[in-house]
Amino acid sequence: MAYRPTLPPFAFLFVLASACVVNASPCAPPPGFRNSPHPAIAAPDQLVSHTEVIVIPRPFSVVSDAMNKPLEKTINKSESLPGVSGDYMLTQGEFGSPGSRHIVCLTDGTSTEEEALEREDTPTSSHFRYIVWNYTTPKAKPIEYGVGEFRTDQLDLGHTRVTWTYSFKLKIGRAHV
Q1: Which residue segment(s) compose the domain that 129 sits in?
Q2: Whole-angstrom Cα distance, residue 2 to residue 174?
Q3: C-alpha of 174 from chain center
Q4: CATH code at 116?
Q5: What is the pLDDT of residue 139?
Q6: What are the b/e assignments for 104-137, b being 16+ CB within 10 Å?
Q7: In this structure, are residues 116 and 96 in contact, taking their beta carbons and an 8 Å threshold?
Q8: What are φ and ψ of residue 71, in 5° steps?
Q9: Is the separation of the CB atoms in 144 and 39 below 8 Å?
Q10: SS3 151
Q11: Exposure check for the chain: N or C terminus, fewer CB within 10 A?
Q12: β-bridge pairing 125-133 and 111-122
């Protein structure tokens, strides 16, 4: 059986935006939505961060292909957190290139907004950084925004390291999550 890493709590809030997100479910901006710029990103020492590292015994191309799928096929509903039901593009083209933005709709009827900040791809590595904000799910009440970063590197012909760092800016007056 193929290894499938599990995502830690709140990980659904930082979804890997594939280079090609397909709008499989109806998804629209929530009532009263205003398309405004993402929040200014605070210095790293002002964010609550966590890093996950996994070495997958597969070539980079295989890992990269496996990660390149729609969010609704990646982030599934769990007992405590909603999954992804679809997305709604706010910019022209597909999500993934720097500046591209979309609304991510969740299976509980809530949503969040996401923007790609950086992307670099080579034949043996990739880097993707993004920001998520405007959470409407009650599960994210203490979170102002989050910043995620994926780095995928081929270690040798049969091993790929995936490093995922996700950081949260908490709302003032909230305890660490």
Answers
A1: 46-71+82-170
A2: 39
A3: 23
A4: 3.30.530.20
A5: 84
A6: bbbbeebbbbbbbbebeeeeeebebbbbbbbbbb
A7: yes
A8: -55, -40
A9: yes
A10: strand
A11: N
A12: antiparallel
Q: What is the CA radius of gyration of the chain?
A: 16
Quick check: 130 and 117 in contact, CB under 8 A?
Answer: yes
Strand order in the sheet with 111-122: 48-56, 159-170, 143-156, 125-133, 111-122, 101-106, 84-89
Which portions of the chain are predicted below pLDDT 50?
1-24, 177
Bin 99: left if φ > 0, else alpha if -120 < ψ < 50, else beta: left
Q: Structure tokens of 133? A: 């904000």
Calculate the alpha carbon distances from 64 to 19, 55, 104, 110 in Å.
Answer: 10, 13, 22, 29
* Residues near 159 by beta carbon (within 8 Å), at least 6 away in sequence: 55, 56, 57, 58
CB atoms within 10 A of CB 5: 11
Q: Cα(128)–Cα(16) distance, rounded to whole angstroms? A: 9
pTM of this structure: 0.79
State the DSSP H helix or E strand holding residue 169, giving kind and residue range, or none if neither.
strand 159-170
- For the segment 99-147, what is each residue's pLDDT rounded down to a tens digit? 999 999 998 899 999 999 999 999 999 999 999 999 998 888 899 999 9
* Domain count for the chain: 1
Whether 30 maps to a domain, the answer reads no
